[in-house]
Amino acid sequence: MKHTVVLADDHAVVRDGLRAILEAHGVQVVGEADNGVDAIHVVQELEPDVAIVDITMPGVNGIEATREIRERSPRTRVIVLSMHGASEYVLRALEAGAVGYVLKECAAREVAQAVEAACDGHRYLSRQAADLVVQECGRPHHAEREALDTLSLREREVLQLVAEGRTSAQIADLLCLSSKTVDTYRSRLMAKLHLTNVPDLVRFAIRRGLARLD
How far is CA 146 from CA 151, 186, 199, 203, 205, in A? Predict the structure, then answer.
């Protein structure tokens, strides 16, 4: 079965180019939008596997659209497409629930790979975006190494899968656990590592080399 995608960008020429690239790789583009509000509605109606969302759009920007899409259509995974390479944009996109961040300058060669990774349950960051995240995370501290040492093997497995963008249901299936147990592990991880949210878990895992970036 073909992966399905909705494209959201306020430039028709960009949408046309992305459609051509994706269809050449066997991906089915099922809908389009030229602003953030329409993107949210189209994704909610069509429930595609992936929504590719530009950051700079009229009405509702791509970050807020991503957050709303994840709230209304949790099965749809969001890839943010942007000309902005600054770390603040990348981190805000991840915090909003995006599983991918592709720079427009890299889109021609990376967008199909990003869709494939998202549909396989992985994160995908353009190399420049990944480098920025790692730089933002900074050097690992001794306290982090000690905190990591307190985790059980199962907790490390859950941490890695959470950081790779897997849902509780996917983690439960992979580890033969219930979704409720996975949620308990996630809460326990946050308590042990003194973190407050999933983006913090992702950054911790990247710093400690536990998470895939592509």
Answer: 9, 18, 20, 16, 14
CB 37 within 8 Å of CB 62: no
Sequence-separated (6 or more) residues with CB below 8 Å from residue 98: 53, 66, 78, 79, 80
Per DSSP, the three-state class of 169 is helix
Gap between the Cα atoms of 161 and 170, Å rounded: 9
- Domain 139-207 CATH class label: mainly alpha
pTM here is 0.66
The CATH class that applies to domain 4-135 reads: alpha beta
State pLDDT tens for residues 138-197: 555 556 667 777 888 888 888 888 887 888 888 999 899 999 999 999 899 988 888 888
